[in-house]
């Protein structure tokens, strides 16, 4: 039986040719009645059986389940309205049965340090897992599905020979996946918390999150009703807390009683009950491929998502809907399985990113305990990035407004339009135009392109506009088109741009990012071949160690002590020119594998002198440069530092080291840390996704105690409001959105109906401050709707 259990829901490319199991069954078309074997009688497997039988009543469908019909683990299952809508269209009979048994509620209670905060409007629906299975069992029997309980399925090789299709819905511990591990190439990741699945014999009046700060550490309760007289209760804590509290030495009954005692207030002094409950560590399952010949993975066998966003049963049911639809639409099984994976993989990947963000939030819960109660509640609710500031504002405006008041937002002011002070500079809003290399300078001199590019974005309303990385020497350029600040002529050209910004976009600050390319220099313009060496006219490179950025690339010379002094003086000379050019803020570029970043990462710094080895020694030269620049940069003007908080590569900068790096720069006078990631080594493996770098900024903000700028696929004003209000960032830097729309911040204000000091429309643009009227868009059609002749069998 699938081990998926319900929790709190947050409101691909074609693969290579699949290998074939041993002596496969003769090919069959997808629309031809398929002899189908289903391994696993959990919700995903059973619902697949229902759908396939409804689509073709003469299809032979057999389900093997090793457990008894009423033998289930866990207690309640939560399904979203989206999933229920798919069920309603595909099988009204199952939908009607579910509707009759669902418990529905709207509220979430969050209890933290004796204070309970409630958010409403969330629309949950849950029922008992056992009842869900009963409904699916009854529907399978009505349709003529062959259900075989207390029966081990035959070996997958045999099923693949004897059946046209084999659906492996055998859960997180899938034996089918293990049998064909070389084909599926699974990756299982264990996480840092222990949890146990329990129940209470009464119904909570809301979804509950209760935080207990014990002598052993922080513990949390996730609870929700699933029947008029029953609730699911999950108790979770870090592994080290679990051991310190002695749970590793308690049996099931003792653990259950101990959890009830710890959360006696949430339970009203009532006991908890278990059902073969055991402490376990959640494991995220990812497979490189989901099918192998005529064998296909479904549900937890293919993928898992942490229970804190309630996606296990939801994903399995949606897998079943998509698989059935693809089998109906495609001419062959092979094409159907390819289409199924192409459809579901991006959806699942998005859900798994959200689940990862949620589970990591709970793993690091202690980081947020000192937040004010309303902000803590908002942070918890938006942890997965699926629920956002705008979602909550629509669902529960009173709650959201109370969080905004606690944060300090004036009435009617979104968080992104509140001011932020860095040293002597007050930014009128929290939006930063992120540094973006334009590769459009001549001899390092910014020209009309830079004036128009930066000037347009300054007119667009952002609180701070940053230049691209401005190089401190000719040798320190990335490409021949990079801008510099190593000559007086370059400084004069920059002065023209800062004068424009200050005169035409008063209230907007402009900052300069200073850097040196290091081993990543002497390359072509980005659109001619990113990171590729120049065909001619290359200049020699320098770096902490003689390591090329890419295999076969130019090998840099290792910097000598004398050259380190020269580089430091190049930075200070550029900082002098930047001050005279009128920049309001200076950022030192210590990220993305450029020279100073190269000193910080153990993957690029192999020195054995005082500037290499331990993290403290790797920090030494970047701090020397920072100190030298800070000494010549005007005292009232802020300095920030951009760092790569991870190299996305084994053996690179660790999260703990990233926090230590941020602390060190803050101790030396950095006013904020601009937290980016990666681009340090060519063989990196980033985990891309919406706001994917924000968790690194969050960690540095809370653990290093320094203001942070978050970057990385922050694409909407809703993301900015959410990150700022939750306390995960102080400023948000956006790059590509500002390439798409130079007036992104002005339009964000218009779309939110905001008019105030946080953003000012230039007088000539005021006529455009109202959002244009757009045409209607129709919603998507249901994924699987059966024809009238198939409504009941």
From TrEMBL:
Record organism: Streptomyces rochei (Streptomyces parvullus)
Lineage: Bacteria, Bacillati, Actinomycetota, Actinomycetes, Kitasatosporales
PANTHER family per record: BLR3436 PROTEIN, NADPH DEHYDROGENASE C23G7.10C-RELATED
Name of the molecule in the record: Bifunctional salicylyl-CoA 5-hydroxylase/oxidoreductase
Entry-linked InterPro entries: Aldolase_TIM, FAD-bd, FAD/NAD-bd_sf, OxRdtase_FMN_N, YqjM-like
Pfam families, alphabetized: FAD_binding_3 (PF01494), Oxidored_FMN (PF00724)
Gene3D superfamilies found in the cross-reference section: 3.30.9.20, Aldolase class I, FAD/NAD(P)-binding domain
Annotated stretches, region: Disordered: 1-35, 767-793
Residues covered by the NADH:flavin oxidoreductase/NADH oxidase N-terminal domain: 416-749
Domain FAD-binding: from-to ranges: 36-352
Biased composition (Low complexity): 10-31
Source domain of life: Bacteria
């Amino acid at each position: 039986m699938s081990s998926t259990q319900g929790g709190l829901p947050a409101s691909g490319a074609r693969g290579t040719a699949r290998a074939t199991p041993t002596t496969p069954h003769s090919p069959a078309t997808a629309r031809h009645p398929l002899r189908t074997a289903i391994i696993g009688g959990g919700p995903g497997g059973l619902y697949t059986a229902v759908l396939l039988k409804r689509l073709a009543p003469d299809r032979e469908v057999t389900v093997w389940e090793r457990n008894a019909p009423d033998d289930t683990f866990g207690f309640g299952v939560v399904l979203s309205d989206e999933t229920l809508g798919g069920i309603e269209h595909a099988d009204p009979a199952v939908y009607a049965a579910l509707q009759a048994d669902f418990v529905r509620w709207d509220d979430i209670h969050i209890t933290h340090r004796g204070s309970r905060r409630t958010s409403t409007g969330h629309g949950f629906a849950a029922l008992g897992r056992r009842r869900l299975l009963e409904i699916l069992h009854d529907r399978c029997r009505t349709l003529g599905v062959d259900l075989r309980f207390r029966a081990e399925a035959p070996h997958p090789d045999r099923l693949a020979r004897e059946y046209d299709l084999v659906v492996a819905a055998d859960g997180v511990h899938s034996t089918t996946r293990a049998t064909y591990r070389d084909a599926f190439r699974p990756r299982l990741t264990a996480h840092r918390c222990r949890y146990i699945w329990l129940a209470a014999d009464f119904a909570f009046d809301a979804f509950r999150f209760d935080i207990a700060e014990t002598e052993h550490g922080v513990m949390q309760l996730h609870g929700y009703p699933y029947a008029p007289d029953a609730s699911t209760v999950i108790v979770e804590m870090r592994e080290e807390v679990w051991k310190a509290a002695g749970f590793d030495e308690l049996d099931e009954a003792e653990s259950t009683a101990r959890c009830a005692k710890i959360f006696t207030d949430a339970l009203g002094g009532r006991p908890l009950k278990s059902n073969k409950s055991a402490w376990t560590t959640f494991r995220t399952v990812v497979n490189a491929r989901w099918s192998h010949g005529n064998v296909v993975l479904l549900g937890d066998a293919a993928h898992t998502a942490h229970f804190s966003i309630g996606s296990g049963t939801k994903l399995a049911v949606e897998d079943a809907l998509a698989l059935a639809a693809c089998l109906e639409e495609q001419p062959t099984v092979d094409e159907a399985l390819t289409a199924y994976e192409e459809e579901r993989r991006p959806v699942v990947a998005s859900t798994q990113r959200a689940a990862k963000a949620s589970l990591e939030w709970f793993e690091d819960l202690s980081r947020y305990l000192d937040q004010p109660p309303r902000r803590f509640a908002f942070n918890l609710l938006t942890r997965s990035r699926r629920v956002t500031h705008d979602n909550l504002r629509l669902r529960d405006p009173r709650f959201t407004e109370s969080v905004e008041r606690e944060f300090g937002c004036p009435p009617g002011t979104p968080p992104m339009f509140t001011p932020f002070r860095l040293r002597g500079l007050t930014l009128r809003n929290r939006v930063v135009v992120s540094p973006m290399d334009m590769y459009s300078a001549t001899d390092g001199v910014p020209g009309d392109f830079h004036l128009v590019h930066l000037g347009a974005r300054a007119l667009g309303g952002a609180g701070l506009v940053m230049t691209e990385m401005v190089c401190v020497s000719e040798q320190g350029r990335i490409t021949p088109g990079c801008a510099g600040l190593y000559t007086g002529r370059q400084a004069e050209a920059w002065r023209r741009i800062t004068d424009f910004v200050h005169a035409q976009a008063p209230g907007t600050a402009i900052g300069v990012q200073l850097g040196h390319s290091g081993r990543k220099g002497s390359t072509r313009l980005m659109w001619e071949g990113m990171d590729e060496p120049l065909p001619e006219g290359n200049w020699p490179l320098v770096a902490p160690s003689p390591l090329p950025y890419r295999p076969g690339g130019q090998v840099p010379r290792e910097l000598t002590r004398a050259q380190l002094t020269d580089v430091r003086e190049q930075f200070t000379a550029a900082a002098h020119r930047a001050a005279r050019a009128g920049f309001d803020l200076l950022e030192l570029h210590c990220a993305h594998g450029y020279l100073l970043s190269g000193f910080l990462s153990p993957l690029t710094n192999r020195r054995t002198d005082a500037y290499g080895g331990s993290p403290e020694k790797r920090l030494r030269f970047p701090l020397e440069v920072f100190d030298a620049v800070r000494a010549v940069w005007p005292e009232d003007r802020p300095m920030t530092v951009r760092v790569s908080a991870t190299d996305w590569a084994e053996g690179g900068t660790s999260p703990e080291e990233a926090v230590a790096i941020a602390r060190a720069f803050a101790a030396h006078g950095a006013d904020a840390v601009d937290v980016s990631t990666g681009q340090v080594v060519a063989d990196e493996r980033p985990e891309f996704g919406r706001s994917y770098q924000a968790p690194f900024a969050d960690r540095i903000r809370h653990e290093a105690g320094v203001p942070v700028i978050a970057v990385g696929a922050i694409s909407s004003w809703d993301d900015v409001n959410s990150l700022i209000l939750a306390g995960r960032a102080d400023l948000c830097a956006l790059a590509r959105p500002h390439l798409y729309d130079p007036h992104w911040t002005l339009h964000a204000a218009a779309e939110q109906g905001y008019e105030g000091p946080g953003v000012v429309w230039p007088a000539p643009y005021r006529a455009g401050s109202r959002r244009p009227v757009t045409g209607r868009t129709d919603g998507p059609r249901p994924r699987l709707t059966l024809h009238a002749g198939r409504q009941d069998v």
